[in-house]
Specification:
With about 425 residues, this protein is α/β, with parallel strands linked by helices. The chain has 2 domains: about 5-155 and about 290-370, Response regulator (Rossmann fold, 3-Layer(aba) Sandwich); about 160-285 and about 370-405, 3-Layer(aba) Sandwich (Rossmann fold), CATH 3.40.50. The chain has helices at about 10-25, 50-70, 90-100, 115-125, 155-170, 185-200, 220-230, 240-255, 265-270, 295-305, 315-330, 335-345, and strands at about 5, 30, 40-45, 80-85, 105-110, 130-135, 150, 180-185, 205-215, 235-240, 260, 280-285, 360, 365-370, 370-375, 390-395. A 7-stranded mixed sheet has the order 1-2-4-3-5-6-7, with helices on both faces. α1 (about 10-25) links the parallel β1 and β2. α1 (about 10-25) crosses α2, α2 (about 50-70) packs parallel to α11 and α3 packs parallel to α4. The longest helix is centred in the first third of the chain and has 20 residues, at about 50-70. It is globular.
């Protein structure tokens, strides 16, 4: 039997761990509302090197569900979440199909792994159900692997590279400089390396070396010894999840002083590195310092719901995805997946906590929006455990076209 969970704010934090246990048993966790509720599937990794991000993803989407239901739901019906641990691409594909066909969800939100997002997207396309990707960055998902039912609130690798790249150019860290990069050895990392190389070569940089790092790697000493010997101008992280936590912590322990830049980043992995170990310049799709009314409101609501914890970028994506779905269903007066997909592709704009409203680009269903760059703080200036970086600014600038940082329209995406 499925276990049904009537969630209150006091129980939200505890339910994250419970959801992981249920998913491990092959049983979806149900955030139950009422018999005629609108069912939304949520798939994200809760174990492995991406597990810490998945925990925040669940926290974000549950908070959105609670707020929506407290305000009357959608079309007079409550939202009900059916949540699963996606585990890996094969499991993600099977669970996506089960969510749609057996559990009768009208659409799916979530994922972080680009390989798993591809698998979920293929199921969504075949069964004609909307999938909003909240954490997978690969440009290929917006290119040759795109489809009309897969949407992306997460930034693409191109957007992350452009966000931090502007600051590297300003600080003269590209032209004539030698980069040493470490890249996560799976679909996301391979795609990010390709995009980073394109940016570097276009701006006169060169690689001193590049290393592919297995996703299960925890000991970075072999790579750090090579970096010490090579003495590059810049150390580049194309890593993911807890890889970043282990890398920055051990980099600090080795006392290496070469500047670090990341071309992908999640705040929670830096929190896990411990005070004084985080350094460098990194890109983000959103951070808790964004100074807009809706962003501040989200930070306050999250902290209230979760005992003072601060939201980060992954929670932002899952939270706003459900809010977008609820608003779209209200505007179309329907929970029909086809009508939802059509509505999202009309260019309708959404407040996602940024200075400018965002929209899904019909060409590839990528959300077009502002991105950010942050710089690690001096440990002596940190006010608390969450205060690890300072905001550098917004990309594109206020008078620049939002699409200027989007993945190129190279014709590989055949939506339409």
């Amino acid at each position: 039997m499925l276990k049904r969970m009537n969630l209150s704010r006091r129980r939200l934090i505890k339910s994250v761990a419970g959801s992981a246990l249920l998913a491990g048993l092959g049983v979806p966790a149900i955030s139950r509302a009422q018999a005629d509720a609108i069912r939304i599937g949520h798939l994200t990794p809760l174990t492995g090197f991406l597990g810490p991000l998945g925990e925040y993803a669940q926290m974000g989407v549950k908070l959105a569900m609670e707020e929506i239901n407290a305000s009357g739901g959608v079309l007079g019906r409550k939202i009900e979440l059916v949540m699963e641990d996606s585990v890996n691409p094969q499991t993600a594909s099977a669970k996506a199909e089960r969510l749609i066909e057996r559990d009768k969800v009208v659409m799916i939100i979530g994922e972080i792994s680009s390989a798993s997002a591809l698998a979920i997207g293929q199921v969504a396309n075949r069964l004609k159900a909307v999938f909003i990707n909240t954490g997978a960055n690969s440009d290929a998902l917006r290119g040759a692997s795109c489809n009309p039912y897969m949407f992306h609130i997460e930034g693409a690798n191109s957007m992350y590279v452009m966000a931090v790249g502007q600051y590297l150019l300003h600080e003269k860290m590209v032209k004539g400089k030698r980069w040493y990069s470490l890249t996560a050895d799976y679909a996301f990392g391979h795609d990010l390396l390709r995009v980073a190389k394109k940016f570097m070569e276009a701006n006169g940089g060169q690689f001193a070396a590049d290393e592919l790092v297995p996703t299960e790697a925890t000991d970075f000493s072999p790579y750090l010894l090579k970096i010490r010997q090579e003495r590059p101008d810049l150390v580049v992280s194309n890593l993911a999840g807890t890889q970043i936590t282990n890398f920055v912590k051990q980099y600090s322990e080795y006392g290496l002083q070469f500047p670090i830049v990341g071309f992908a980043f999640d705040t929670v992995v830096a929190w896990g590195a411990g005070k004084g170990n985080f350094s460098g310049i990194w890109p983000l799709v959103w951070h808790h310092l964004v100074d807009t009314p809706s962003s501040k409101k989200y930070v306050e609501a999250f902290a209230k719901a979760y005992g003072g914890r601060i939201p980060e970028n992954q929670s932002w994506g899952d939270y706003n995805s459900l809010k977008i779905v609820a608003r779209s269903m209200t505007e179309t007066r329907s929970a029909d997946p086809q009508k939802l997909a059509e509505h999202l592709r009309t260019g309708v704009k959404f407040d996602v906590g940024k200075a400018r409203e965002a929209y899904f680009r019909p060409y590839d269903n990528q959300m077009i929006m502002e991105m950010y760059a942050v710089r690690a703080k001096d440990p002596a200036k940190m006010k608390d455990q969450w205060d690890i970086y300072e905001a550098l600014g917004t990309v594109p600038g206020p008078n620049e076209d939002l699409e200027s940082i989007a993945p190129p329209k190279d014709g590989t995406c055949k939506i339409g």
